[in-house]
Amino acid sequence: MAASSATRAATHSRARIDRAFTRRCRKLKAGESATQRRARLLRALRYGAMFRRKPALPAPSDRWLVIGLGNPGREYERSRHNMGFLVIDELARRHGARVTDRAARSLTGRVRLGDRELVLAKPQTMMNLSGVAAKALRAKYGVPLERTLVIHDELDLPFGRLRIRKGGSSAGNHGMDSLIASFGSKDFIRFRVGIGRPPGNGVDYVLSPFTAAEQAQVPDVASRVADAVLVTIDQGLERAMTEFNRI
C-alpha cells in the first residue's frame, strides 16, 4: 500500500512539474519570432516526455526458468506428450503473460512475482532435442540448475497424477534424456505429470490426442501442476512435494 501511494505521489508531482514547465515555455520571450517559439516548444515537449516515460522495472534478484516439454506444431497441440506446454500456457494465462517471444530455440514469456522473475519456455526443437533449447535458455537468462524447473508427461503414472522430485532417471522419456545430457547433470527439479501407460505402442500413445474424458480433466490437471510450480518457487521443494505428491 505504501509503495502504491508513493507511486501515485510521484506521478502527481511529475504532472505538476510538466504543467508548470509548459506554461513557462509558452510565454513569448522578448525578440523571439513565432518560428523560434515553435522550435522551443517542441524541445520542451521532448524534454517533458523524458519524465513521463514509465520507469523500468528493477532487475529481479531471483530468476527462475520454467520449461514445459512438448512438440511444436498444430498437429501436436492436444497430444499427451504436450502436457508440459499446457502447464506453461496455464501459468502464462494466470499472470496475463504471452509465451510468444522467440529466444534460444524456444517460445518464451516472462512473469514478474515481486522480486522474482519467471521465464516460461516451450522449446521448439521437437521433444527429443529439448536439451539443446534448455541449455541455450539457461545460458541466455543466466539461470542456475537449482532454479530450473522442468514439466513433462509421465507414462508410469496414472492420468492426472503429479509427482515432483529432484534428480532421478529419465524413465524412458527422450526429452528428459536430452536435458540430462545437455545439462551434464540429473540434479534439477521435475514435475512428472501422469498420462497413463497403454497396453500397446507407447510412441503412438503419447503422440495421440487425449480422449474426451481426459480432455475434460486437462484444465484441472494443468491448474494443479501450475499451483505446484508456484509453491515450489515460493515455499520450497520439500513443501511442494509434501502438498502435491500425496494427491
Commentary on this structure:
This protein has 247 residues and is of the alpha/beta class. It folds into 2 domains: 2-52; 62-244, Peptidyl-tRNA hydrolase (Rossmann fold), CATH 3.40.50.1470. The protein is built from 8 helices and 7 strands. The chain has helices at residues 2-26, 34-52, 83-94, 130-141, 174-183, 202-206, 212-235, 237-244; strands at 62-68, 101-103, 106-113, 116-123, 148-154, 162-166, 189-194. Strands 2-3-4-1-5-7-6 form a 7-stranded mixed beta sheet, sandwiched between helices. The chain starts with a helix and ends with a helix. The mean pLDDT is 86.
Instruction: Give the assembly state of these chains.
Output: single chain
**CATH architecture assignment name of the largest domain:** 3-Layer(aba) Sandwich
Low-confidence stretches: none
What is the count of β-strands? 7
> The CATH topology of the largest domain is what?
Rossmann fold
Secondary structure class reads alpha/beta
Please provide the ordered H/E string of secondary-structure elements: HHEHEEEHEEHEHHH
Strand content: 15-25%
How can the largest sheet be summarized?
Answer: 7 strands, mixed
Shape: elongated
Instruction: Identify the CATH class of the largest domain.
Output: Alpha Beta
Fourth-tier CATH superfamily name of the largest domain:
Peptidyl-tRNA hydrolase
Count the domains: 2
Radius of gyration: 25 Å
Quickly count the helices.
8
The helix fraction, in percent, is 40-55%
